[in-house]
From TrEMBL:
GO terms of molecular function: pyridoxal phosphate binding; threonine synthase activity
Keywords, alphabetical: Amino-acid biosynthesis, Pyridoxal phosphate, Threonine biosynthesis
Pfam family, one: PALP
Residue numbers bearing the N6-(pyridoxal phosphate)lysine modification: 129
Protein name in UniProt: Threonine synthase
A GO cellular component annotation in the UniProt record: cytoplasm
Highest taxon listed in the record's lineage: Bacteria
Pathway: Amino-acid biosynthesis; L-threonine biosynthesis; L-threonine from L-aspartate: step 5/5
Summary of the function given for this chain in its UniProt record: Catalyzes the gamma-elimination of phosphate from L-phosphohomoserine and the beta-addition of water to produce L-threonine.
Necessary cofactors: pyridoxal 5'-phosphate
Organism: Limosilactobacillus ingluviei
This enzyme's EC code(s): 4.2.3.1
Length: 512
């Protein structure tokens, strides 16, 4: 493996250890930090996002991905980005162990209705967030040991349904951590809510916000840069970190499943080594699709990255015009995890395609905050459109897509996956692009049984646990442990606040 850019900094025994530094997307003058520090901090002090100072340029063969277990692929990817984190192999084994209901961790389906589905929901909370949030606690622990950081880590998280539960599960009873999750009170599915409130642990806190996801995430970002609060925390030996894809420790593990998908296609001889594969990614905060962009930059033969949105189609318009404009109605939809108008990770993409122009990124992000919109230079927009395609599906269109795929092959997909599937087909029809396409299946259909049933069942649809049983009748496979657990979880208590009260509740929780 060749690391032609990372700097060799020290040598332990016969093995050379490389160090990868991380810098903010916004401040060209800021001192870079180590990978360990970037994971511990979560967000850069200037409000920007950490990116690696040099992008890894490994040389590798694609052939081994056909036979390697997922754990090996994940370890390889993590080592490219966090070469200075010691003891990664153990962490990876713990992250991808018996808590997964499929040994492949992210199995690729057969071709259904024209496309493949990369099933990212075989972890304990039934959504793709587990792939990274079973790993992040491990990475954080390694980073803390390595840096000697002994303050308590307060994981502040905003969720539109899936990240929160996966973060609670990942950090459940992890020593030296507390997790505070904020979710939009009226913006997640009944099963998502029951699942989130069902996560028990002395270090876990769930707070409903009487606002939408954007308000929760924006306030979380403000709390990160609140100096008075940081001092209060420091006095108690505490500091914030993030479980959202703003944290590189959350984002980087997601790159691995693009390699795993490619390996599975190769292994089945559906493609030849080097063939380009398109990926359709349902996305709200842009983390999942950015991981695909990073996979392409690492040399994986990725063709188009198809960015799929729901009715909150701010990203579709951005890719079409180069103008990002969040001044529009926020829709609460039947694909709630994607109900987002401020896509945090787009900032990392802009940093990359503008040739690391941190001043430009800072200016655009400032404009977004003050005016609600920005337009990227024409050259930046042009670069984006060579790699990305974009489209959206309405709530009715995604339901029709669930039915189409089910009718084709009795294959059940969740509403978010259906958004990706619909937009992939739309793209294929408009462009005639016949390359193999992998749709990221981001959540289990059992998290949204009402919407799925409504699409496929002629009978009246029930809700919650009853709907899960009703949906199971359409499924030849037995219920997985993660779904069965939904029937036994007991709801924990939660607080409810307005967005303006989020700081006060954080202080109250942390003061015990
Ligand atoms: N879609 C998420 C919200 C934020 O995304 P993240 O990937 O940055 O955590 C959710 O379901 O909670």
């Amino acid at each position: 493996m060749g690391y032609n850019k990372a700097k060799v900094t020290r040598k332990i025994g016969p093995r050379r250890i490389y160090q990868m530094n991380y810098r903010s997307t916004r401040d060209p003058q800021a001192q870079p930090v180590t990978s360990a520090a970037a994971i511990i901090k979560g967000l850069a002090p200037d409000g920007g996002l950490f990116v690696s100072s040099t992008f890894p340029q490994p040389s590798y063969d694609l052939a081994p991905f056909t036979t390697q277990p997922y754990q090996d692929i994940a370890q390889q990817v993590l080592t490219w980005f966090f070469p200075d984190l010691a003891a990664l192999p153990g962490a990876v084994q713990r992250a991808y162990g018996a808590q997964w209901d499929d040994q492949q961790i992210t199995p690729l389906s057969a071709r259904h209705g024209g496309n493949y589905y990369l099933e990212l929901f075989h972890g304990p909370t039934l959504a793709f967030k587990d792939v990274a949030l079973q790993a992040l606690p491990q990475l954080l622990q390694l980073a803390k040991v390595q840096t000697g950081e002994d303050s308590e880590t307060i994981i502040l998280t905003a969720t539109s349904g899936d990240t929160g539960t996966a973060a609670l599960r990942g950090f459940q009873n992890v020593a030296g951590t507390q997790v505070i999750v904020f979710y939009p009170r009226d913006g997640i599915s009944p099963v998502q809510k029951a699942q989130m409130l069902g996560q028990a642990g002395a270090n876990l806190h769930v707070v409903a916000v009487t606002g939408n996801f954007d308000q929760a995430q924006t306030t979380v970002k403000q709390l990160f840069s609140d100096q008075a609060l940081a001092h209060e925390l420091a006095a108690r030996q505490q500091q914030f970190s993030s479980a959202n894809s703003m944290n590189v420790g959350r984002l980087i593990p997601q790159i691995a499943y693009y390699f795993a998908a490619y390996g599975q296609l190769l292994q089945r001889q559906e493609i030849q080594s080097g063939d380009l594969v398109n990926f359709a990614v349902p996305t709200g905060n842009f983390g999942d699709i950015l991981a695909g962009y990073y996979a392409k930059k690492l040399g994986l033969p990725v063709g188009k990255l198809i960015c799929a949105s729901n009715a909150n189609n701010v990203l579709t318009d951005f890719f079409a015009t180069g103008t990002y404009d969040k001044r529009r109605e926020f829709y609460v939809t039947n694909s709630p995890s994607m109900d987002i108008l401020v896509s945090s990770n787009l900032e990392r993409l802009l940093f990359d395609v503008s040739d690391h122009d941190a001043d430009l990124v800072a200016q655009l992000m400032n404009q977004l905050q003050t005016t609600g919109h920005y337009t990227v230079p024409a050259e930046v927009h042009q670069r984006l459109t060579t790699t990305f395609a974009a489209g959206y599906a309405t709530s009715m269109q995604l339901q029709a897509e669930i039915k189409r795929v089910f009718d084709a092959d009795n294959y059940l997909i969740d509403p978010h996956t259906a958004v990706g599937s619909f937009v992939a087909r739309q793209y294929q029809q408009v462009t005639g692009d016949q390359r193999p396409c992998v749709v990221l299946a981001t959540a289990s259909p059992y998290k949204f049984p009402e919407t799925v049933l409504d699409a496929i069942s002629p009978a009246p649809v029930s809700s919650g646990l009853t709907a899960i049983k009703q949906l199971a009748e359409f499924d030849a496979a037995p219920l997985t442990a993660g779904v069965q657990e939904l029937f036994t979880n007991l709801p924990q208590s939660q607080a409810e606040v307005a967005p303006a009260e989020m700081k006060a509740i954080v202080q109250q929780i942390l003061q015990g």
